[in-house]
Every structure is written in C-alpha cells, then in structure tokens.
Amino acid sequence: MACHTVLPLLFLLFLLAMAATADDVAPGPTTPPPELNLTNILENGGQYTTLLRLLNATRITEQITSQLKNSYDGLTFFAPNDNAFTKLKAGTLNALTDQEQIQLLLYHVLPRYYSLTTFQTASNPLHTEASGPGGMYSVNVSTSTTSPLVNVSTGVVDVPISSTLFARFPFAVYSVDDVLQPPQMFGSSHKAFAPAPGQAAAAAGRQKGVPKSDVAAEPSEAVEEPEGSSTNAAAAGRGIAVWLTTVIVLGGMALFLNLLVSA
Fold first, then answer.
1. Which residues pair with 46 in a beta bridge?
2. Which residues, listed in sequence order, are joined to residue 136 by a DSSP beta bridge?
3. Domain-by-domain residue ranges, the chain?
4. Which of 77, 117, 127, 143 has the most crowded CB, counting CB atoms within 10 A?
5. How many Å apart are CA 154 and CA 182, to the nearest integer?
6. What is the pLDDT along the chain (263 residues), one digit of tens a residue?
7. Which residue ranges does the record annotate as region Disordered (predicted)?
8. Terminus-to-terminus CA distance in the chain, angstroms?
C-alpha cells in the first residue's frame, strides 16, 4: 500500500524537477550587442561629412573596428565636425601626403576609453595613436566643473569637447569644433602644450594613488558591465540548479528503492 502512495508523489516530484532544469539549462536565445561602428555614429550626428570622407579614404574606420574587437582598454575618438575643417587654411588637407592624413586622423584617437568623468583623473600628456620620428604624439586635457567639462590642447589649438556622440565602454566619441593639429606637423603657435606648474600639481594630486592603467577602467554611468560577466553568472546559476535537481532525483529514487525493499 505504501508503494502505491509514494510512487505517484515521486513521479510528480521528478517531473517538476526536470521542468525547472529545462528552464535553467536552455534559456531562450539572446540578441547579441550591435557591432560598434564609427561610421554609423558619425552619420547619426549629421555634420561630419568631411571627416567621414577622410576616414573612408584612409580606411581608419576599419582599423578602429578591428581594435575595438581586441582591446581591453577601449578607444576614445575626437570627431571634428564640418565647421572645424572650414577653419583650416585653404588647401591644408590637400597639402598633406596620404601618410600625413592618416597620422592626422590617428591624432584624434586615444588608445583608452575615457568618459567625461575619467578625464578628471587623467595624467597629462595623453598619448594618441599617431606617431612620428620623435615618438608618440600627445595631447593635454584640462577639466572643469562647469561647461565645457573637458578642454583638449595640442600646442597648436585649444578646443573644448562640445558634445558626446557616444560613450559606452569600450568606445567613446566626442564632437569637437576644431581639428586637433599636432605641433610635429603644424608647428607650435604657443608654449601651452606642457601644463602650467599649478595645473601639473593639481593633476598629480587628483592622480595620487590611482595607477595609470586604471584611468580608462574607472567605472562611470556610461560604462557597461564587461562582456561575459552576466553570462558567467547565469552559467553558475544553471550549474547549481542542475546539481540540486540531481540530488532530488537520486534521493527520490533511493527512497523508492528503500520502500520497495521494506515492502
């Protein structure tokens, strides 16, 4: 009689455990994140025709896309709008060789992700991806608590970040109203490229105790969780569910066999 009572209960328990396991082990398909595409970001901005033409001609967009797929630190890109290029002297771009145009564009790329917040702890100078016989080309940044929040200095031009086109780790794109001009290519119009003593001391104070390698990794409101973290957590949860289900089923089978022997 005991066997007839316990068998339906064990069978029901087994079905419930299997249903719970199926839900945890085989979740529905998820939509992969869209590929970060500088061209799309600039086209959505609506005022970057000249920049897009240069990026396509030099194939810098392909290089940036490749780097974003393989970079742990991310990238930051300063995007001069069409008005910025009109401020250049007539014939400036045409006078540059193909290689110089590439270096000019790479001068607008920082090999780390910087939110507007993490710029405040950045240690000058910030190396860009452009380089020459003298080494890496660099820029300086200064920050403020009022608008504009961040100002970029090359030694030739000083330009504030006018707007944020995209800022989510690992990629940040900021609009600027001037083309960033490296002094190695355009000559220095003033000696403001090196920070003033007071600015250097303030930057050192802000940076004290913060390793340089952590500047780009500092979390902010625009930074997403590192790719794969949520997947690992879900996998761990599914593993626990499968283990519990196995324990329940084996325990039920042991009880069932014990009852059979006792009967």
1. none
2. 131
3. 2-30+228-262, 38-214
4. 77
5. 6
6. 555 555 555 555 555 555 555 444 444 444 444 568 999 999 999 999 999 999 999 999 999 999 999 889 999 999 999 999 999 999 999 999 999 999 999 999 999 999 999 999 999 999 999 998 889 999 999 999 888 899 999 999 999 999 999 999 999 999 999 999 999 999 865 333 333 344 334 433 433 333 333 333 333 333 333 444 444 444 445 555 555 555 565 666 656 556 555 65
7. 203-231
8. 9
Q: Which CATH number fits domain 38-214: 2.30.180.10, 2.60.120.330, 3.90.1700.10, 3.40.50.300?
A: 2.30.180.10
* Cα angle, residue 149 at apex, residues 84 and 176 outer, rounded to 5°: 10
User: What amino acid occupies position 3?
Assistant: C
- The answer to whether the CB of 249 falls within 8 A of the CB of 17 is yes
